[in-house]
Amino acid sequence: QVLFGVEQNEPDRSVDPFSDWKNTVVDVGHMSLLQLSLRTLDGVEKAKRDIELENRRFQSLDMGTKPAEELAECRALYSPSALAMRRQNAKRDAAWKQRSWGQTDRALERTSEVQSAFEHYGVAPLRKATTAKHLRKAFEAVQVQSPLHHDREWQKEHKRLEKEAKAEELRLAEESRNAASALRPWHGNANWPPPTRAAA
């Protein structure tokens, strides 16, 4: 039985340590027995002894059961020089793919059109890891610059000004009526004005 297997969250050395810690951190309630034991010094010592025991068992028992052809093949494929050559070939293949598997003229033209469209509206191009929040912001930025949006805003502003003008007109009419009522004290009084006496 293998003591150490491939963990679910392997460290990613291509990112910064903080992002690596966020990706590999595990809640205590979801830790395995090995992860829980490594939190203490006694657990680390026990894991070290188990690794040494597993190595001795592999060298004394498992190595003897494998045929000589398989051992020679593993030695040839996984020697330091073979591993270095494999890494060099991988880099060479990656460089060749980058040169040979480039975008076609049609794809480049399409990419240029998309880039020019984003630049026209002043919006940054979407990234690969685009979320719904980024899409909403991009849509709102494009919508603000559209003629239909300007027409809607003009209509809203026009309605607001009309409403304010009507309210101001009603207010002035009410003030005019109140001023007229103040100048006519007999308004609503049947005994006003008093009867005038005939001239002598």
Offer a quick outline of the entry.
The chain contains 8 helices and no strands.
Our Rg estimate from Cα atoms comes to 43 Å
The string of secondary-structure elements, in order, is HHHHHHHH
Q: Based on CA inertia axes, which overall geometry fits? A: elongated
User: Which consecutive residue ranges, at least 5 long each, have pLDDT under 50?
Assistant: 1-8
Largest sheet: none
- Which range best describes the helical content: under 10%, 10-25%, 25-40%, 40-55%, 55-70% or over 70%? 55-70%
Structural classification: mainly alpha
Oligomer: single chain
Roughly how many Å apart are the termini? 139 Å
Total E-strand runs: 0
Average pLDDT, all residues: 77
How many helical stretches?
8
Strand content: under 5%
Describe this structure in words.
The protein is mostly helical and 200 residues long. Helices cover 68% and strands 0% of the residues. The chain has helices spanning 17-24, 33-37, 41-65, 68-77, 80-100, 105-121, 132-144, 147-183. The radius of gyration is 43 Å and the shape is elongated. It starts with 16 loop residues before the first helix and ends in a 17-residue tail after the last helix. The relative contact order is 0.03. The model is unreliable at 1-8 (pLDDT under 50).
